Automatic annotation (TrEMBL), chain A:
One GO CC annotation: kinetochore
Pfam families linked: DUF4187 (PF13821), G-patch (PF01585)
Gene source species: Glonium stellatum
Any coiled-coil regions, as ranges: none
InterPro entries per the UniProt record, alphabetical: DUF4187 (IPR025239), G_patch_dom (IPR000467), GPATCH11 (IPR039249)
Residues covered by the G-patch domain: 67-113
Bias (Basic and acidic residues) ranges: 35-57, 125-151, 159-181, 243-255
Region Disordered, annotated ranges: 1-57, 125-186, 223-260
Record's protein name: G-patch domain-containing protein
From TrEMBL, chain B:
Assigned EC number: 3.6.4.13
Family as reported in the entry's similarity comment: Belongs to the DEAD box helicase family. DEAH subfamily. DDX15/PRP43 sub-subfamily.
Record's function text: Pre-mRNA processing factor involved in disassembly of spliceosomes after the release of mature mRNA.
Alphabetical list of SMART domains matching this protein: DEXDc (SM00487), HA2 (SM00847), HELICc (SM00490)
GO MF annotation, one: RNA binding
UniProt GO BP: spliceosomal complex disassembly
Lineage of the organism: Eukaryota, Fungi, Dikarya, Ascomycota, Pezizomycotina
Region span, Disordered: 1-22
Annotated protein name in UniProt: RNA helicase
Biased composition (Basic and acidic residues): 1-13
Hydrolase listed as a keyword: yes
Annotated ranges, domain Helicase ATP-binding: 117-282
Length: 317, 774
């Protein structure tokens, strides 16, 4: 040590920004003063006052006398130190007896009983809240799970639609084609509808139907915007074929319209199944039909599907 | 417990023996010769005195001179007691004496007189346990007299009592038993009253009185045996005496000490006194069945009343003792029980029920009524009547009422509490201890098997009640005690061997208070003022106030006021005539405060009009005759001390406009540490330094417009009250108690600001005055 510690290290010295005392504007000051005056002027209720008094008393009761007390110095003369007790015995009292003011006529044990009951109640409420919380979590979890599955289902449907369409267009091994529903593939939503909706593959018909509904809605909105004064469904008795073509009113759209209006009990039945089951059906369909594992996201070359760990999602973790 | 005791006793006896031997041999080595030094008969210089006494004895009495001190047997003493002459006076024994003697012989202690004598003779210190009713308080001192023969050595036997009333009544009883006049051979000494004479050989006294005597006679040389009775009550004075006597017995091997306790946990006393031997005499008790409530009670008073009435309706003959906490509660309960019992008698043909209150401040003749027999059946052969006594815990140990079979115990009593942190000493309703509960239950088994109804659950008894009631020393302001101990020559209070030392802060506060009162200097040594103050049997603040009163030209008035502050409540306020009582009080009211009002009362009482028929006058004016006569007596005693200490007695002429101001200033000289200042303009006051919010007690005559007040008492209830208040000026505080009102020691706040303003004002005035003079 050569006194180097005395030398201030200016480099490491933190330079404190001089904190500017917040200047109180006259309005702020006025407001503050008014607030303070109001606080002072407000007459406290009896209960508040009592609570204040009790708090002051309890605070004073909890503060022990310390070495600043004159008596302490006199006691120190005889070797008394802070924390010592008096007398010759070891187990002497260190703290004054606490003062408890009884405020009512409650019998012995009533307060304890009240406290016990209160505690029990609190515990009970806490327990119930916890149970409810658990339930809520469970519900949230399952809802989340369902949503996730729903998303997976849609994905699987898309894959199935794509693969089915590909097969239709390319031609497929014979043994598998007959299992395919007899219809034309649909690979583009905007293309003219050639096949009745209710004869498409039930597994992904829902997807298709939703898409078509969306399309129709979009078109209707478009039509509405284009038609200016007319409802798209309005048929002008004076309108001829050319007019209709010019206005974009085509027959087919009406067919689709009808198809979409129709009930589809088959689809409803399928949609009533739990999402798990629907997904499972799709996964199995993809495996059987296309050697495609939804979980591996891979189309295998043969039916043995070498390398795929299994049928369920868990097996793919 | 019972079967273990004899064994315990034997062991300790042996141990004790060793200690005694040790101490005696030590004494011898130190050059003391006990026999020569302490037996006056062996002292050649006292021979004339001794032979005269001896002659006197032979002339008048009948054979005590043949007794060898500390070598007597029970049968010798019994023969003496049988007469025909009184062994102490030589007079023929009366018929009354003989009939009492027969009853005395039936008391349980008599069966063990020899055993007692053996232990007493063998050991310097003895712990004696006898339950109430065993006869220990009246008989043991007499047993001692016949063996200790104090008259032969010009000594006395002292027997201490925690209460004044007990000391007086027991002395009265024992004087009767010994067939002597009270004040002759048997006397008593209590604060402000000494009924003893040069003949006295047995002196009943309050423990506080013995302590005061020790201040002048540190070794208590006037006594050959000291009996501390009711030691289980652990009063402040008894605890201090035990600490003191523990040292005195080492200095005085000839002094014998008996500690008497009514409860069985006497092992603590044994341990404290170096394993002193113990003798236990069983009381005459019967089994008591204890009942608990299944649920805690919502209102213990209501539950108590219900229980009493139920006992009256359903239980067989036997009196009821109900414990409640204070005068008001007791009077209220008595009224309600009376009402209900009357209705029960009318409607349900219940027997008559007589209800008596019992509490400390009840006039003695009314206290006496509790011994009235239970009322007879309304019609011959009808349902028996019974009495119900509603009492504070006086009936727990000190008073024995025969005929009690049922005890109702709500589990509360009013207990003194003191906390040095906020300097509050107050009576608070608190749960009793297990020991108290057992004692209460025991009261039911005095005459025959009884029942005790505890108005709490068994679980609450086990969990909520503390084992033993805290001894008083842990619940008291010790400034008085510290002053006494300093006077007793005990310098090191830190290591003074007390049975239950209080919290250090309690001692700290006491020393500080005494320092502010200038009774102790900064080193903790007694000052001249402190020495003088210790001469007064008063609180140091009161003593200092009295001593300094000549400086304010009003010592006569302060003498009266001190006396008035030392007695119970002056004003009587019966609940049925509150308004009338308040009107009467207003006659004496002084606008500046309660102290001055009390003084007005005293002056009116002493006026010719008041003295014409004082009892009637007090009754008419709703004043306590007892308190006023007591105050008169206290004043006389204090006046004697004043005269002895050559303190001037004087008054400011009443016409002088400073008459009352001087008195108020003199009050400040003692009570400057009990001052409160009004908080803003409201009703609340804040105590100086401790900063507690307080209200003026509703009984005050003081208007609300006094900025500064001094108070006599800080009372804790559901609200904090200051009681007995008088208005003062801040200038006086700064002037009379400059050390306490050193502004540097004050916390920032309203009080400091106000005092600072006063200081500035005083300076300005001083400057103007000074300027004017120049």
């Amino acid at each position: 040590m050569n006194g180097s510690e005395d030398v201030d290290d200016y480099m490491s010295m933190a330079i404190v920004e001089p904190t500017k005392p917040e200047k109180e504007t006259s309005i702020q000051r006025q407001a503050r003063r008014r607030r303070e005056a109001e606080l002072r002027a407000r007459v406290k209720s009896k209960a508040e006052k009592k609570a204040d008094d009790d708090a002051a008393r309890d605070a004073a009761l909890a503060t022990s006398l310390d070495i600043s007390n004159k008596g302490f110095r006199m006691m120190a003369k005889f070797g008394f130190k802070q924390g010592d007790t008096l007398g010759a015995s070891k187990d002497a009292r260190a703290e004054p007896i606490n003062i408890v003011v009884k405020e009512d006529k409650g019998g012995i044990g009533l307060d304890a009983e009240k406290k016990r009951k209160f505690r029990e109640e609190v515990e009970h409420v806490a327990k119930r809240a916890k149970a409810e919380e658990g339930e809520y979590r469970e519900r949230m979890r399952s809802e989340r799970e369902e949503k996730r599955k729903e998303g997976q289902l849609i994905n699987a449907q898309k894959v199935a639609e794509r693969l089915d369409t590909e097969v239709k267009e390319k031609g497929v091994p014979a043994e598998k084609t007959d299992q395919l529903p007899d219809r034309q593939g649909i690979n583009c939503t905007s293309r003219r509808f050639t096949e009745p909706l209710n004869s498409t593959n039930i597994l992904w018909r829902g997807l298709l139907r939703r898409r078509l509904e969306k399309e129709r809605e979009g078109r209707m909105r478009y039509d509405l915007a284009q038609s200016r004064s007319r409802l798209p469904t309005y048929t002008d008795p004076d309108e001829d074929e050319d007019d209709r073509r010019a206005l974009g009113k085509e027959e087919k759209s009406n067919v689709l319209e009808e198809e979409l209006e129709e009930d589809d009990p088959q689809l409803e039945e399928f949609n009533a199944l739990p999402v798990n089951e629907r997904l499972e059906k799709l996964v199995l369909y993809l495996r059987d039909m296309h050697n495609y594992c939804f979980w591996c996201k891979y189309q295998y070359h043969d039916a043995s599907m070498d390398g795929c760990p299994g049928v369920t999602e868990d097996e793919h973790d | 417990m019972a079967d273990r005791r004899p064994e315990l006793e034997d062991n300790s006896r042996v141990k004790r023996q060793k200690v005694i031997d040790g101490s005696i041999s030590r004494m011898r080595q130190n050059g003391f010769d006990i026999d020569q030094k302490n037996d006056p008969s062996k002292n050649p210089y006292l021979a004339h005195h001794y032979s005269a006494a001896q002659d006197d004895m032979t002339n008048s009495s009948s054979g005590l001179q043949n007794f060898k001190r500390h070598k007597t047997m029970a049968k010798d003493a019994k023969a003496m007691e049988d007469g025909p002459h009184n062994p102490f006076t030589g007079n023929a024994l009366s018929q009354q004496y003989m009939s009492i003697l027969k009853k005395r012989r039936e008391l349980p202690v008599h069966a063990q007189r020899d055993e007692f004598l053996q232990l007493y003779q063998k050991s310097q210190i003895l712990v004696f346990v006898g339950e109430t009713g065993s006869g220990k308080t009246t008989q043991i001192p007499q047993f001692v007299l016949f063996d200790d023969l104090p008259h032969l050595n010009n000594k006395m036997v002292a027997c201490t009592q925690p209460r004044r009333v007990a000391a007086m009544s027991v002395a009265q009883r024992v004087a009767q038993e010994m067939d002597v006049n009270l004040g002759d051979e048997v006397g008593y000494s209590i604060r402000f009253e000494d009924k003893t004479s040069s003949k006295t050989i047995l002196k009943y006294m309050t423990d506080g009185m013995l302590l005061r005597e020790a201040m002048h006679d540190n070794d208590l040389t006037r006594y050959s045996t000291i009996i501390l009775d009711e030691a289980h009550e652990r009063t402040l004075a008894t605890d201090i005496l035990m600490g003191l006597l523990k040292e005195v017995v080492l200095r005085r091997p000839d002094l014998k000490l008996i500690i008497m306790s009514a409860t069985l946990d006497a092992t603590k006393f044994q341990r404290y006194f170096h394993d002193a031997p113990l003798l236990a005499v069983p009381g005459r008790t019967h089994p008591v069945e204890i009942f608990y409530t299944p649920e805690p009670e919502r209102d213990y008073v209501e539950a108590a009343l219900r229980t009493v009435l139920q006992i009256h309706a359903t239980e067989p003959e036997g009196d009821i003792l109900l414990f409640l906490t204070g005068e008001e509660e007791i009077e209220d309960a008595c009224r309600k029980i009376n009402l209900e019992a009357d209705e029960m008698a009318r409607e349900a043909d219940a027997g008559p029920l007589k209800v008596y209150p019992l509490y400390g401040t009840l006039p003695p003749q009314q206290q006496q009524r509790i011994f009235d027999p239970a009322p007879p059946p309304r019609t011959p052969g009808g349902r028996p009547g019974r009495k119900c006594i509603v009492s504070t815990n006086i009936a727990e140990t000190s008073l024995t009422i025969d005929g009690i079979v049922y005890v109702v115990d709500p589990g509360f009593s009013k207990q003194k509490v003191y906390n040095p942190r906020i300097r509050v000493e107050s009576l608070l309703v608190s749960p009793i201890s297990k020991a108290s509960a057992q004692q209460r239950a025991g009261r039911a088994g005095r005459t025959r098997p009884g029942k005790c109804f505890r108005l709490y659950t068994e679980a609450a008894f086990k969990k909520e009640l503390i084992e033993q009631t805290y001894p008083e020393i842990l619940r008291s302001n010790l400034s008085s005690t510290v002053l006494e101990l300093k006077k007793l020559g005990i310098e090191d209070l830190v290591h003074f061997d007390l049975m239950d030392p209080p919290a250090p802060e309690t001692l700290m506060r006491a020393l500080e208070e005494l320092n502010y009162l200038a009774c102790l200097d900064d080193e903790g040594d007694l000052t001249a003022l402190g020495r003088l103050a210790s001469e007064f049997p008063l609180d140091p603040a009161l003593a200092v106030m009295l001593i300094s009163s000549p400086e304010f030209f009003c010592s006569n008035e302060m003498l009266s006021l001190t006396a008035l502050l030392s007695v119970p409540q002056l004003f009587v306020r019966p609940s049925s005539q509150r308004k009338r009582a308040d009107e009467m009080k207003d006659l004496f009211a002084h606008p500046d405060g309660d102290h001055l009002t009390m003084l007005n009362v005293y002056h009116a009482f002493k006026s010719p009009e008041g003295q014409e028929n004082p009892k009637q006058w007090c009754h008419d004016h709703f004043l306590s005759y007892r308190a006023l006569t007591q105050a008169d007596n206290v004043r006389l005693q204090l006046k004697r001390i004043m005269e002895r200490e050559e303190l001037q007695l004087m008054s400011t002429p009443f016409e002088d406009k400073k008459y009352y101001e001087n008195i108020r200033r003199a009050l400040v000289a003692g009570f400057f540490m009990q001052v409160a200042k009004r908080d803003g303009t409201g009703k609340t006051y804040v105590t100086v330094k401790d900063e507690q919010n307080v209200l003026l007690h509703p009984s005050t005559v003081l208007g609300q417009d006094s900025e500064w007040v001094i108070y006599n008492e800080f009372v804790l209830t559901t609200k904090n009250y200051i009681r007995t208040v008088t208005a003062v000026k801040p200038e006086w505080l700064l002037d009379i108690a400059p050390t306490y009102y050193d502004l540097d020691t004050f916390k920032k706040g309203d009080i400091k600001t106000a005092l600072q303003k006063t200081v500035d004002k005083m300076r300005r005035k001083e400057a103007i005055k000074g300027g004017g003079r120049r």
